[in-house]
Design a protein that fits this description.
The chain is an all-beta fold. The chain has no helices and 15 strands. The two termini are 19 Å apart. The structure holds zinc ion. The site of zinc ion has 8 residues, from loops.
Length: 151
Amino acid sequence: MPSGAHSMTKPLTRVVRCLHCAAAFRVPDAATVLTCPTCYQRVRVEDVVVENELVLPRLETCGRIVIRRRGRLYTRLGVRASLGVEVLGELQAETVNSCRVYIGPQATFRGDCQAGGITVETGATILGGRFQIDRNLLDPSETHTAASCRA
Ligand SMILES: [Zn+2]
């Protein structure tokens, strides 16, 4: 983490969306876990970047999940990210749920996928699973601008 943030006049914040109540709220950039100001649930708000092999029962965040080229994420249960899932490496999960899912040209994906929008690049490998596009999962702040979750 760069330590130059104190020299900025404005604190670095970003907007995330609660996984439980779908309320959008602003959090400090460095925050990892916070209490949602609307439903008071403790929620993970950080962006999760997977660079190596990561094996978890499940992975959920109110931010984004990015699986880098060499990253491998194996979850027995679900993967949920309020602001998008980007797979450049390998992802295996029972269900992936997000507003947007991006599966890159060298990515491998196995599992069900439920998203507001799904992008699959040529060259990606999908090893089964049910894909479902549900417009209700789109981030409401996205419906006016075409901006995607993957900034
Ligand atoms: Zn909430």
